[in-house]
Every structure is written in C-alpha cells, then in structure tokens.
C-alpha cells in the first residue's frame, strides 16, 4: 500500500505541473502534505517535516547557487565569455569551428546556467553560421551539447549541487568524476553528432531579433583574466580536494583547508575575485555590479523554490519511513543501483519536463539505498544527473528556448534538441557504469 501511495503522489505531482499548470514549488508542497497524510504522519508533524526538508536542503545550497548565478552574470556582462569565444574561434579556424564552439560552450557552461550560457552564445553561433556558410544547427549542436552536459553533471549548477547535498557526496570528487565523464560526452554528442548529414542539410533562418550585438573588441577583458575568472571555482575545488587527500586530519592546517575548500567559501572567493578583476579594476561602478547581481538572483528564484519543494517532499518520505522501505526493496532488485537511479530520473524527466525536478525527486527516492552504502554517492549524482536530461519535449522550457531562438518547427526541434538530449543521457549512463568498474 505504501508504494501505491508514493506512486500516486508522483503521479499527482506530474499532473499538477503538466495538466493543471501549477508552479512546481506549490505542486511539491501540496503533494508533500497529501503524501504525509496518506502515509500516516501525525497531523501535528507534517508542517514541521515540510519545514525541516526545506530548511536542511536550502541551508546547504542557497549560498552556492546564488553566488554561482552572480558569478555567471558578471562573466557574461563583462564580455569575458565573448573574449574566450573569440580567442578559440581564431585558434581553430573554419574547418574545426565545431570544436571551437564546443570548447567555448564547455568553458562558459561551467560557471553559467544553461539559459544564460545559451542566450550568451547563440549570437556567436549565428555569426559563425553566417560567416562560414554553415547550417545553424550544425554549429548549434556542439554548443547545446556542452551547455546541457555541464548543466546536468557539473557543480556549481543547481541539480548536481543539490544531489551532492542529498547524498552527502564530496563536491570535489564529484566534479573530478564529472569532468572525466563530461569531456567524452561533449565530444560525441557535440562535434561528432553535429556532423550528422541531417544537421548539415537542415535549412533554417534564425530570427534577427535574437541576434544580440557583441561588445566592441576594446571593451573586452584580457584573455588570461577571462579564463582564470570563469574557471576559478573549478580550479579551487579540484586543487583543494587533491591537497586535502594528502593531509591527515591531525595536520595543523587541516582545519583551515576544510574551511577554505567548502563550496560556499570557494564560490564567495571566486565572486570577490570576479567583482575585482572583471568589474572594479576595469572602471565599473560597484552599484552597477550589484544591480547585475540582484538581477541574477531574480532569475534563479524559481529554481531555488523548486529545490526547496523537492526537499519538503523528500523529508516526508523519510519521516514516514517509506523512504527506508523503498531503499530496502530496491536493494533486493537485481539491478545496478546506478542504472536504477538513472531510470527513475529519466521517467520523471519525461513526465515532468524539468531536469531539476526529475533529479531531486529521484534523489529523494534513491537516497536510502545510497546512504546504506549500495552505491558510490559521487557516481549516483552523475547517474541521476544524466537521466534527468533525457528526451526533452514540449513540457520542458529548454525545448521552446531552442525552438524559438533557432526558428525551428516542432518536428525539427524533436529531431535536433530532443535527439541530442537523449543521446547525452545514454552516454552519461554508459560512462557512469564504466567509471563504476574502476572507482
């Protein structure tokens, strides 16, 4: 009976979001309360469970996600991303332009959210398409692959960070594994898939209104400054994690290292550096920079609420005991836990549309199995992240973003963007299972 209630709650969540068009945060709250009632949680405890779920998850995430949005904002507004793109385009040349786009999007996609990176790089894709007479989607596929993979697998993006917190995984280790997995995924789903004849012959005319004007060359920051600032969180997380592995807990500097390697501190250091290197030292007033940061926070408000709602739902499952029952039942299935986590996320992604909702809902279900030692938590982050990207269609905002910017038909969007996302999801699953053999 308990499993029927959980299945019904997930179905209710899907129907509220897709059919009734309820905001996911509200849908999560309603589903959480009803699930708590049907699972027998005392009435006086339901509200506290919801609050505990929201508070515990948001306490671990809100700083990183908010600072990450601010960092992405200044990287975009300062022209740092444009500088990186211009350099790579010049280095690779016409015949390897697909690789230049993929590398640019990968670098830019690490600190920037998908939507921000997409809007930032689309004008570059259109200009390259026009300059070299290459079909827009043939150039766009490498960009979309890189942005999608970084969004689904790599911190400091909301989904991976939330999963790291849910599974008590190590942020640095997850980032290292994610990079090992992400690079071949981008290569296969980007430049190589972009060579498919279908994309070479797809005739579209991107809308002029979406072709933003780039900053003049003299207004751009230096290349070294742009690269270092955009990738500073990655450098710090990896370097500090490696150093921490070499020191024992009895070392005199271990406490300081633990403090400075905390993702919240890493993001704060990175943002302070970006504010100085891309803002104040280049003559930008502090008020203008802070206004940009405020706008960035507004852009991610709904993402934060979705994560909060998912935390409430997860806590209800934990407090009712159902989460533990699910974990016990799943342990008996003759299925690799990583495959199971991927599959749960994939089903929810297809049903709900949001990769973040899919990842966090799957995490709440699979968490007991991970906590019981049934799977490496870092790899489970990547497995669920990969599954949450599969088969983007009409219930996903990213589907319509790609369709409208590239001026595609519904059929063309399915045959390009939806196909790409599905390829990325299966590549991610294959990569995680291969990594599991060695980790």
From TrEMBL:
Q: How does it sit in the membrane?
A: Multi-pass membrane protein
Keyword tags = Cell membrane, Membrane, Transmembrane, Transmembrane helix, Transport
Which Pfam family, giving just one, matches this sequence? GntP_permease
The record's section on InterPro entries has: Glcn_transporter
- Say where the protein is mainly found: membrane
One GO molecular function term of this record is:
gluconate transmembrane transporter activity
GO cellular component term of the entry, any:
plasma membrane
Location within or outside the cell? Cell membrane
Q: Does the keyword Transmembrane helix apply?
A: yes
Keyword Transmembrane helix annotated? yes
Query: Transmembrane region positions?
Result: 26-43, 55-76, 96-122, 134-154, 174-198, 219-242, 254-280, 339-367, 379-402, 414-438
UniProt superkingdom: Bacteria
Family, as annotated? Belongs to the GntP permease family.
Name the NCBIfam families on file: gntP
This chain belongs to which protein, by name?
Gnt-I system high-affinity gluconate transporter
């Amino acid at each position: 009976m308990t499993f029927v209630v959980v299945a019904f709650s997930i179905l209710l969540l899907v129907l509220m979001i897709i059919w009734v068009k309820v905001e996911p945060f509200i849908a999560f709250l309603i589903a959480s309360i009803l699930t708590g009632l049907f699972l027998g949680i005392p009435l006086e405890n339901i509200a506290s469970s919801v609050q505990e779920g929201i508070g515990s998850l948001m306490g671990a995430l809100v700083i990183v996600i908010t600072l990450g949005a601010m960092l992405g904002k200044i990287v975009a507004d300062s022209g740092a991303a444009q500088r990186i793109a211009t350099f790579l385009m010049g280095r690779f040349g016409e015949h390897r332009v697909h690789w230049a786009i993929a590398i640019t999007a990968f670098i830019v996609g690490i600190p920037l959210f998908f939507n921000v990176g997409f809007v930032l790089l689309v004008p570059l894709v259109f200009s390259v398409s026009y300059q070299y007479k290459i079909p827009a989607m043939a150039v766009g596929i490498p960009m979309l692959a890189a942005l999608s993979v970084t969004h689904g697998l790599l911190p400091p993006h909301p989904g991976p960070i939330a999963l790291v917190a849910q599974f008590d995984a190590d942020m640095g280790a997850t980032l290292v594994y994610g990079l090992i997995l992400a690079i071949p995924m981008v290569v296969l789903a980007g430049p190589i898939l972009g060579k498919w004849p279908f994309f070479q012959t797809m005739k579209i005319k991107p809308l002029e209104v979406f072709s933003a004007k780039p900053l003049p060359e003299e207004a751009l920051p230096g290349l070294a400054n742009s690269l270092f600032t955009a990738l500073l969180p990655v450098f710090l997380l990896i370097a500090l994690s490696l150093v921490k592995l070499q020191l024992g807990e009895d070392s005199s500097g271990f406490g300081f290292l633990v403090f400075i390697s905390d993702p919240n501190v890493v993001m704060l250091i990175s943002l302070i550096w970006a504010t100085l290197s891309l803002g104040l030292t280049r003559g930008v007033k502090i008020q203008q920079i802070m206004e940009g940061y405020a706008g960035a926070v507004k852009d991610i408000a709904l993402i934060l609420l979705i994560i909060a709602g998912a935390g409430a739902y997860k806590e209800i499952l934990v407090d009712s005991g159902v989460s533990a029952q699910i974990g016990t039942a799943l342990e008996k299935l003759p299925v690799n836990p990583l495959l199971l986590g991927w599959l749960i996320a994939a089903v929810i992604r297809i049903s709900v549309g949001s990769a973040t909702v899919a990842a966090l809902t799957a995490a709440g279900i699979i968490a007991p199995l991970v906590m019981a030692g049934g799977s490496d938590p870092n790899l489970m982050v990547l497995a669920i992240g990969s599954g949450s990207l599969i088969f983007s269609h009409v219930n996903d905002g990213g589907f319509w973003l790609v369709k409208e910017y590239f001026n595609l038909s519904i059929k063309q969007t399915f045959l390009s963007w939806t196909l790409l996302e599905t390829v990325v999801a299966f590549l991610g699953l294959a990569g995680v299972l291969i990594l599991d053999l060695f980790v």
